[in-house]
């Protein structure tokens, strides 16, 4: 398992199955296994690791990275994933979102929308693919609306500008996507402290928050995060 800054400078932070087990014990509601280099390296998601992690936990597991077609999705779900997250393949072939949601159920199909600030876009945010390396010319908010219409069951927006910086989520882009689609939104990219989680859920109107660095490097436990959010009036499962 690795963690980087803006999807690069990756540091090894441990065995995925061991850390997944720890996070479940600490109270994580769900885990996201995102093989961020799979698409760039033109390979599939590492199925043996998906199986290993899925077998180690009893909470929902979302898997993304290197997914290109319905067969890939089927294999990952068969390996034990609860949901899949697609990004590059969805942009290249939007019909895949529709086909997948019809075949497997929209609640299992999450579209990951990686964004970068671009003032030339109507919303100020552009969709990027291939691990954040390739701009698409697509406006992020328009794309989010499109994937809703295609049948996606949720959106996982990650700000490449904020990812790994620990300076906070890009609240503005998260809120724009939440308000434009009405779909469940899982905020990602930039959490550095517990207040950032609270901001994404309240100001950003996200339904859930995904964080990596603050947990991987043991700055906070998931229990601490949940207790903090509960004290601030956010409904969480303890």
Profile the largest sheet. Answer: 7 strands, mixed
The H-level CATH homologous superfamily, spelled out, is: Aldolase class I
Q: Which percent range fits the helix content?
A: 25-40%
State the secondary-structure class. Answer: alpha/beta
Number of helices: 10
Averaged pLDDT: 91
* CATH level 1 class label: Alpha Beta
Distance between the termini: 26 Å
Instruction: Give a count of the beta strands, DSSP E runs of length 2 or more.
Output: 11
Low-confidence stretches at least 5 residues in length (pLDDT < 50)?
A: none
**H/E element order:** EEHEHEHEHHEEEHEHEHEHH
What is the 3D shape?
globular
Walk me through the structure.
This protein is α/β, with parallel strands linked by helices and 238 residues long. It has a single domain, classed as Aldolase class I (TIM Barrel). The chain contains 10 helices and 11 strands. Strands 3, 4, 5, 6, 7, 8 and 9 form a 7-stranded mixed beta sheet that branches. A two-stranded antiparallel ribbon has the order 1-2. A hairpin with a 2-residue loop joins β1 and β2. α1 packs parallel to α2 and α6 runs parallel beside α7. The chain is globular, with a radius of gyration of 16 Å. The model has no long low-confidence stretch (mean pLDDT 91).
């Amino acid at each position: 398992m690795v963690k980087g800054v803006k999807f690069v400078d990756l540091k090894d932070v441990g065995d995925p199955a061991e850390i997944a087990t720890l996070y479940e014990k600490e109270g994580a509601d769900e885990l996201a296994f995102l093989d961020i280099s799979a698409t760039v390296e033109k390979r599939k998601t590492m199925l043996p690791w998906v199986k290993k992690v899925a077998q180690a936990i009893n909470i929902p597991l979302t898997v993304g990275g290197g997914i290109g077609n319905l067969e890939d999705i089927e294999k990952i779900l068969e390996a034990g994933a609860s949901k899949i997250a697609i990004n590059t393949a969805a942009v290249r072939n939007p019909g895949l979102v529709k086909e997948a949601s019809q075949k497997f159920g929209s609640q299992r199909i999450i579209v990951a929308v990686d964004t970068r600030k671009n003032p030339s876009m109507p919303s100020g945010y552009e969709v990027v693919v291939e691990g954040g390396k390739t701009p698409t010319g697509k406006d992020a908010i328009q794309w989010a609306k499109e994937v809703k219409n295609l049948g996606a069951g949720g959106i996982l927006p990650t700000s490449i500008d904020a990812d790994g910086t620990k300076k906070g989520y890009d609240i503005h882009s998260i809120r724009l996507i939440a308000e434009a689609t009405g779909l469940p939104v899982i905020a990602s990219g930039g959490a550095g402290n517990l207040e950032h989680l609270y901001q994404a859920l309240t100001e950003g109107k996200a339904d859930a928050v995904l964080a990596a660095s603050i947990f991987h490097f043991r700055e906070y436990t998931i229990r601490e995060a949940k207790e903090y959010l509960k004290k601030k009036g956010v409904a969480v499962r303890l």
